[in-house]
Amino acid sequence: MENVALAQDGLLRRIQDRYDKLRPSEQIVAVYLRKNANTRMSHSITSLAKILGVSEATISRVSRALGYSGFSDLKLSMAEGATQRSGIDNIPTELDPNDTLIAMSAKLADLLAAAILSTQANLDSERLDRCLAMIKSAQKIVLVGCGGAAAICDEAAHLFMKAGLDAASYSDGYTQIVVAANMRNDCLMIGISHTGTTQNVANALKLARENGAMTLAITSEPLTAVGQAAETVLITGQSSTPSVPLFGDFLEGRISQLFLIDILYLGIVMPEGSESGRHLNTTADALERYFKRSEQRVTRQQINRDTP
């Protein structure tokens, strides 16, 4: 029954779901498959075993663990996946250029929902509690990201500030290093990178950590430069689309990052009696008073102009 369920998912999602249950030697195979998903496998099981330094039996076990009948079935699936391309890098492979827009929207909704569920599957209470503890104890929170991740950093800073936290977002590598160089042990840096290969973000996290600051990475690849630069990592779900760094945005990646930020935000403001919850109400009251007066002022000015 488990294999039947797995067969309904793409290779990357199968690896995501099963990775932690694989042996270390099997994880070597899984990492290779993840990096080469949706490409045509040209290696025989013998040549692949030599390349990876594992046994043929290990590759066979991984193939079956991922829901395939064997290595040949895995190769066939990868070959079929290689032809199912949207034609644009980083756009989900399941989207067909010939789809109507409404059909595409239905597929995209399913893909984004699957990305969130995959991200949820990577969460555990202990790690979430550790992340919340860092956020609540931090005197200053700095978020760093580039490109699409920078927009998520801005949103996170916006939410955290409304909850009464001292938070700021920086997107250029120069400023990220300047800020990291001046962080202390009561500060927290959160670095966001879908691929985990954004070197500016990795450099900033590493420097902040060297200075004693708390560090958290949000990425789909914990073994990359960004993931390894931080003391704690929250893992977003893998996409069925091979990621090409610096080429457009990752639709599933961005929604997964935002999901994690929203979870952390809820953990800050939701507990009964939370000081952050009180700050949120204070912020809301202040915004309402200010903008209500502004709207009334504009209305009066408009009436005065319109009155003969």
Q: Could you explain the architecture of this structure?
A:
By secondary structure, the chain is of the alpha/beta class. 59% of the residues lie in helices and 8% in strands. Helix 11 links the parallel strand 3 (187-192) and strand 4 (214-219).
CATH topology grouping of the largest domain: Rossmann fold
Coarse structural class? alpha/beta
CATH superfamily of the largest domain: Glucose-6-phosphate isomerase like protein, domain 1
What would the average pLDDT be, to the nearest integer?
Answer: 83
Helix content percent band = 55-70%
Largest sheet: 5 strands, parallel
Radius of gyration: 23 Å
Supply the number of helical segments: 14
- CATH class (first level) name of the largest domain: Alpha Beta
Shape: globular
Give the name of the CATH architecture of the largest domain: 3-Layer(aba) Sandwich
